[in-house]
Amino acid sequence: MSVNDEKEMELNTAAEDAIDAAEISRVDESSDYGAEQIEVLEGLEPVRVRPGMYIDSTGPDGLHHLVYEIVDNAVDEALAGYCNEITLEILPENVIRVADNGRGIPTGIHPKEGISAATVVYTVLHAGGKFGGGGGYKVAGGLHGVGASVVNALSEYLELRVFDGEHIHFQHFERGKYDEPMKIIGDTNRTGTEVTFKPDPEIFTETTVFSYEVLLRRMREQAFLNAGLKIIVRDLRDESSPIEEILHYVGGIKEFVEHIHKSKSSTPVFPEVIHFQGIEDDMFGEVALQYNTDYSEVTLSFANNIHTPDGGTHEQGFKNALTKAINDYGRKFNLLKEGDKFSGDDVREGLTAIISVKLSNCEFQGQTKGRLGNTAVRPFMEKLVYNKLFDYLDEHPDTAKLIFDKSSQAKNAREAAKKARDQARARKTALESTSLPGKLADCSERDNKYTELFIVEGDSAGGSAKEGRDRKFQAILPLWGKMLNVEKVRIDKVYGNDKLMPVVAALGTSIGEDFDIQKLRYGKVIIMADADVDGSHIRTLLLTFFFRYMRPLIEEGHVYCAQPPLFKLWRGKQVRYAFTEEERDMFASELAGDSGAKVDIQRYKGLGEMNPEQLRETTLDPKKRTMIKISIDDAQKADEAFTILMGDKVEPRRVFIESNAQYATDLDV
Ligand code: TSJ
């Protein structure tokens, strides 16, 4: 016995039980329907009063759901093994006709209600519980499983024809009500059920126009999910151009996977679609999968032929098993490094999978009931998919290798992307941190037209500068202690560089692609360093950094180098500062005058030797200082020099360091 046979057997037994329980007597034409009818009509009144309680909307979705509700009953008959063809027609005026070639709804008299069983199906709310609307055997399920009676209540008219191989039974309803009981209107040798209805425009006020595409899509899905079932869809609204589509997929969900790949025009990674199915207790599970060469994942899951867009236990079981099977396969054949493993996302990149389960009692959960909740389904699917997939991989090494490689590529790409993302994030956090560096002595003025930032070499000079500045518009950032070894600072690691990051934070502009001159906090950015080798190196480093990461800062003329004097000359109360040796000699003879007295001269070995007042007079005060505006050419030279300085080649570096004094002069003059 095949898996399908077993399932059918089970379903039939349940259906038979339901019918037996109702003890339908097949023929009892003499019953009086009148009294019962009142009760029945009262039964359907709530549906018309509050349609929203029974269908999820009275808009286009609700309108189309009416069709699914009816079709689902025919699909149930197919699942029970008594029908293999369903026809859905859109007739002129948006009238819907659904017919199947099943056994026909029982027309005998229902013992409790005293009317035809078929009439009960159509006129008693939830009567379908016994006769095809959601009972023990029902597998397909429409919206909330509300059944045919709701469709009847919301239709301007509905006509039911039952073909029992001898007679055609007929009943006409209007808005759920009927004047005449079910009656025989002719002879037939076919069997089946046919329902024709026109949704009530009083209810569906927005539209009563059906979308052929929407209905076709749903019917195609049902045809894939029920292998071998033929569904014919016709649009006959325009009599001059009838449309017909025959949906018949012997391969079932395998063909569903192929259909998805074709419609996305994606290339399969291997030719065959992998497929397995299994049955346990009252659960039937089926899976079809294939990989394609692109990166998106399509996993569609269904429970009792109902799409579960929010997944649930069947999908979770499948996903767990897929991940475990591919990982275990990799481990078994030593394809995975020790401790390495694929994530769920890795094994699902480029995957197209259809998961279908059928069980006797689906629980749908979540706000939109789009998730399967039955807990027993997860371990069932896990076991089924893991065992069969692992065996499959074992038996198909070529396919297994392709799947493994696909997952490996996904894993590598994901890890690379994660690294890049983490770096970008760290960068962003570091650069966007609004907190100013702790060592910054900021100014009070905020308008960058007037403000200046001095980046000062060394803490002691920084201290003097802080005291000597005009705190209204001058800010001081002591950069770092003397650099003894040029190799200690690497410019290519700007992010997290504790020397450069305070500069970036103080300027407020960010760097590189994110650089934004609008955010510049100071109109003048002034590098203040000694006129010696170390000072020169700091200038080179900062200028190179600005050149590479904040070029507009230089291009727009915001960067300067301060010019601290090299000598102080004084005679009595007369004081002069000299920036070069020539100046020193010149000022010395000026101060000496005709007298020729030996003038006092102090040589500054560094900024740190100047007291705050001297620093203000010589270097800070805009009225007295000398500064050099850095051009892009200067910065370019610094960049080249830096490359030599930081390069691997020892010789150019030695030459550079030896001629460094010369370079410093080049830069400053
Ligand atoms: F429910 C419905 F009216 F909407 C509807 C039901 C609509 C359509 C298009 C088809 C059907 C339908 C119902 N097709 N086939 C059936 N079968 C039964 O209701 C049926 C027939 C025989 C027996 C039996 O045990 O003899 C049991 C059932 C449930």
Key terms:
about 675 residues; alpha+beta; Heat Shock Protein 90; 3 domains; 21 helices; 23 strands; disordered N terminus
Question: What would you say this structure looks like, in words?
Answer:
- The chain is an alpha+beta fold and 669 residues long.
- It folds into 3 domains: 201 residues, Histidine kinase-like ATPase, C-terminal domain (Heat Shock Protein 90); 167 residues, Ribosomal Protein S5, domain 2 (2-Layer Sandwich), CATH 3.30.230; 167 residues, Rossmann fold (3-Layer(aba) Sandwich).
- Helices cover 41% and strands 19% of the residues.
- It is built from 21 helices and 23 strands.
- It has an 8-stranded mixed beta sheet with strand order 5-4-3-6-2-1-7-8. A 5-stranded mixed beta sheet has the order 9-10-13-11-12, with helices on both faces.
- It is elongated and about 145 Å long.
- The termini are far apart.
Overall mean confidence score, pLDDT: 83
**What is the level 1 CATH name of the largest domain?**
Alpha Beta
Poorly predicted ranges: 1-41, 127-146, 482-488, 648-669
Radius of gyration: 43 Å
Main beta sheet = 8 strands, mixed
Within CATH, the superfamily of the largest domain carries the name Histidine kinase-like ATPase, C-terminal domain
Brief overview:
This protein is α+β, with helices and mostly antiparallel strands and 669 residues long.
